[in-house]
Amino acid sequence: MAPRKRRLCVEKRTAGKGGGSDQPPPSSSPSSSPSPRKSARLSRLPLPSGNVTMKRQSPIDIRTETVCEDKDHCQIESVKIDYVVGDCKSVSCSAGGWKVQVGENCSSFFAARHLPAKFKLEQFHAHWSEDGTCGSEHTLNGKALSGEVHFVFYNTTYGSFADALAKDDGLAVIGVFIKEGSHNANYQPLVDVIRRAAECGVEQEMPKDFHIRSLLPPLDERDFVTYEGSLTTPPYSEAVIWTVLTHPVQVSAEQLNVFRKIVSKNYRDCQDLCDRRVRVTRAAAVAH
Ligand SMILES: [Zn+2]
């Protein structure tokens, strides 16, 4: 086997400020210091509470010089997203965006070598902005993408999502970057149901044949970074083991405009990395 190189993983960088989590997106978040994206963000945010030290907040700026390539810990082949068709039941819209909720008997799971247990799907949602130049929560070398979908799972070691929220390793969230570009036929059934939910103001049923796979990058584009962080929305619980895929999926401006009609922007600023280590499948995967 080829020798593995490890990159320096020591440094804390300063990307943004602090706070973070990942749940249904509210339209505000605590931020504290200026960042390049600050002007696009909301201010006057509530202070975090609960298990929040501000030392492991999300999102963060993922930078080539601070990630560690770790092929033992980060193995694409070990990632198992076992989705059971029918588990995603409904879409609802609120002031913070849209959210797809699972049914009571959900049995869709996420497991991977970099996770300490099996995690069960709870919901998914997205973040975006009023135009394609920003909207993602995580950034790559300081550059934002147009949006980010978050698939939220909780640790089955704990009894419920609520219990898991209070634990250091309670949640696992998969982040998928959206890049405004060509029409994405795989996203259209979801976009259609979100449009209906927004127009009617009433929860809508998900298409019966929906599969999470349709929202992810193809299998050969599943490089990821992982780090310990938080929800990016209140209560900003520091409970999340993040898995952020570095290859974006393309979605058209017309499709993103359906999200923008619900709320023009709902992303949080990058937070301080502090002493955290960010691991990646391949260092080159960050250099997009
Ligand atoms: Zn989120």
TrEMBL record:
Low complexity biased stretches? 29-49
A Gene Ontology term for the protein's cellular component = cytoplasm
Q: Write out the GO MF terms.
A: carbonate dehydratase activity; zinc ion binding
The record's section on Pfam families has:
Carb_anhydrase
Q: Where is the signal peptide?
A: none
- Highest taxon above the source species: Eukaryota
User: Disordered: where is this region?
Assistant: 1-55
Q: Which family does it belong to?
A: Belongs to the alpha-carbonic anhydrase family.
Name used for this protein in its record: Cah-4
Q: State the organism named in the record.
A: Pristionchus pacificus (Parasitic nematode worm)
At the highest ranks, the source species' classification is: Eukaryota, Metazoa, Ecdysozoa, Nematoda, Chromadorea
